[in-house]
Fold this protein.
Amino acid sequence: MPHSETAGADAGERSPLLEVVETTPGPATVIPPVGPEYTRTVHHSGNRFFATAEMAEIFSVQAERTVQSGQTELIPLLHSNGVELLLVSPETVFAVVTIEVGRPKVL
C-alpha cells in the first residue's frame, strides 16, 4: 500500500491553505506558467498547451511528418500540466506559437 504524508497536518486535518486554494475561483483568462522555460504555445482542437521550445519543436516536426504522409497518429506533447496524446491527421488544425512578452513603448 502506498505511503502518503501530509506536511504539517495530521492525516485527518485539512490545511487551511488547501481549503483557500480549492474554494477560490480561477481567473477568467489563461495565464502562462511562470518561468522562462515555457516559451511556446501549442494550439490544438481549441486547447492551449504551454511547452518548452524543444518539446514544441519535437511535436511540430512529428505532426508535420504525419500530415505530409496523409496518416493519422496520436502524437505526445509534454507541456506545463503533464503529457497529452494529440490526434493529428491531414484535416487537423494546429499551431505552435512563440510566447512574446514585450514592454510598453516609452514616449
Notes: Confidence is low (pLDDT under 50) at residues 1-9. Helices lie at 16-23, 53-69.
